[in-house]
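G., the chain you wanted modeled:
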Amino acid sequence: MRVVLCQRQIAIDGRGGGLGTLYANIATALVAAGAAVTLVTATEPEYVGVEAADIVTVPQPSPDPVAYAGQVAGALDRLDFDLAECASWKAELSAYAARPKADRAPVVVRGELPAPVLNPDAPTLDAERALIQNADGILAVSQTVADLIQEHYGRPVTDIVHNAVDARVFCPDGRMPRAVGPLRALWVGSHAPIKRLDYLDAIIRRAAAVFDIVLPWLEDNAHIERFAAYPHVTLYHNMTQDDMTRLYRRADVLLSTSRLEAFGLGILEAMACGTPVLIPRDIGGAAEFVRDGIDGYYYASLDDAVARLASVDWRGFGDAMVPQARQFSWARCAGRTLAAYEQLLAVSY
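Predicted structure as tokens:
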């Protein structure tokens, strides 16, 4: 099977962002499962790091997502393939999927949080809506996403294919000495409003802990300026997978303040490294793999989060979260993905 995966930013070392990391790992796993994979991206090949896949870099990529979707469609016209996939966010295959079915290959969308949940600009929202309606199949990364796609777009998904973790990279290190001193909490996220940096700020000001905060970039804004001024906060950005593994292993607890997660890849990575998690009770996708009291705890409010940071013996939590995380492998993800592809090709084309 010849598959094209479209993702603007992609890097196997983790610096392509959440979706970039996702597609780098999916590409590697699909190749291992026997598929021929081409990645269509704006990233130069030397930075992608997926050696077994062909790389097609879109020349002079437009910063406008709608215009970029047109560039992706043009790149696909020069390729020979059986099926194309992209994520729902930024709708990179929206222009290609809008063509009559007789003039294109099947299109699969990997559903993330729908645009209406994230309040983007109107063109981004319109492009995603058109892509969802025109797609031949939808793979949701969680039941939460499947429900939201049904709610906002009225389409059932083809299957739920959870994201995964590379247990060869994200794993405990028994050689690390037992932590001493103040509790060390790790927060990993972005500047997006859904990550609730204001909530994190409130916890930092009240909790008796030191905090490591990982962001894609350290742009100037009020939250970043405040975080940088706190003596018990260290800011990080542009981190590789190896960098992240060291931070996960060093942390006593992974803290999330997200209002909603499509899946929660950073939460799963922390668990794979043996780090318990403290996450909101209404977090969405991560609730499908985090077991309360076993892999960490859920919290119901700001006060509850601060209280649990103080009262739980995070360093004596145990490592039951490690085998739980390892159930979510990229090989399993690729197998479910290929099965959905094959079913789609057999029924629709």
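The longest helix spans residues 330-348.

Shout if anything looks off.
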